[in-house]
Automatic annotation (TrEMBL):
Pfam families (alphabetical): adh_short_C2
Membrane-crossing residue ranges in chain numbering: none
InterPro entries on file: KR_dom (IPR057326), NAD(P)-bd_dom_sf (IPR036291), Sc_DH/Rdtase_CS (IPR020904), SDR_fam (IPR002347)
Domain Ketoreductase: 6-205
Example GO molecular function: oxidoreductase activity
Assigned protein family: Belongs to the short-chain dehydrogenases/reductases (SDR) family.
Keywords, ordered alphabetically: Oxidoreductase
Protein name: NAD(P)-dependent dehydrogenase (Short-subunit alcohol dehydrogenase family)
Length: 254
């Protein structure tokens, strides 16, 4: 198994892409730490994985708070024998027209989507450097880093920041044998997008812009996460891999 004997931390691991990644890491032999603010969902998922014979634990963590992150990552390393993989996945999306976007919405989005990657990436990197055995960090970006709309200024800015931060982290950590890459999902059916995708007009429009003519499910994205975190990607770092069904390549001629 690809991650046998390794410890993987997944933020936002109680649902959506994070949960799919946590399940895949466990199935591939990793000891899994699920970090989330959703205590009920996180506890239940960790218990389910443990019941299937995997080593999995839930840790309540506010990934926007430096003290919470530092304390939680130290506990994970002590409980699970170190830290080998981080999937920095936690995030939110709040849509509003740019003139109506509040400072609170802006700050909350950047904190959840970008500052959390900085805090968790730094905490993981410090542990990995001390261990001296390398490691892998995979961040969750989005096609929203490159494609924008008038209603998602904060989200797009945060994900563009994730791409830039991913590259900087990768360059800084390469001498320590730590690789850092991002996965950039296209439209994925999760709790974050569910409300929008209930509208048939929205769903039809997204599908019309997606050459593979289907929406992603969380496991589609989790597969890319595990590839980037694993040995098969050992010579890949500082990259964003877009799992978007071909959407970024499509341009209708007029």
């Amino acid at each position: 198994m690809r991650f046998d004997g390794k410890t993987a931390v997944v933020t936002g691991g109680a649902s959506g892409i994070g949960l799919a990644a946590a399940r895949r890491f466990a199935a591939e032999g990793a000891r899994v730490a699920i970090l989330d603010l959703d205590g009920t969902g996180g506890d239940a998922e960790a218990a389910r994985l443990a019941g299937e014979g995997h080593e999995a634990r839930f840790y309540a963590c506010d990934v926007t708070d430096g003290a919470s992150v530092t304390e939680t990552f130290a506990r994970v390393a002590a409980d699970l024998g170190g830290l080998d993989v981080l999937h920095a996945n936690a995030g939110i999306q709040r849509l509003s027209p740019f003139p109506e976007t509040t400072r609170e919405e802006w700050d909350a989005t950047l904190a959840a989507n970008l500052t959390s990657v900085f805090l968790c990436g730094q905490a993981a990197a410090r542990i990995m450097i001390r261990q001296g055995r390398g490691g892998a960090i995979v961040t969750t970006s989005s096609i929203g880093a490159l494609l924008s709309a008038g209603e998602n200024a904060a989200y797009s800015a945060s994900k563009a920041g994730v791409n830039a931060l991913t590259r900087s982290m990768a360059l800084s950590l390469a001498p320590h044998g730590i690789r850092v890459n991002a996965v950039g999902p296209g439209t994925t059916v999760t709790g974050m997008t569910g409300g929008l995708l209930e509208h048939q007009q929205v769903r039809d429009y997204v599908l019309s812009r997606t050459p593979l003519r289907r929406l992603a499910d969380p496991d589609d994205i989790a597969g890319v996460v595990l590839f980037l975190a694993g040995e098969d990607a050992r010579y890949i770092t500082a990259q964003t891999v877009y799992a978007d069904g071909g959407r970024l390549a499509l341009n209708f001629t007029v």
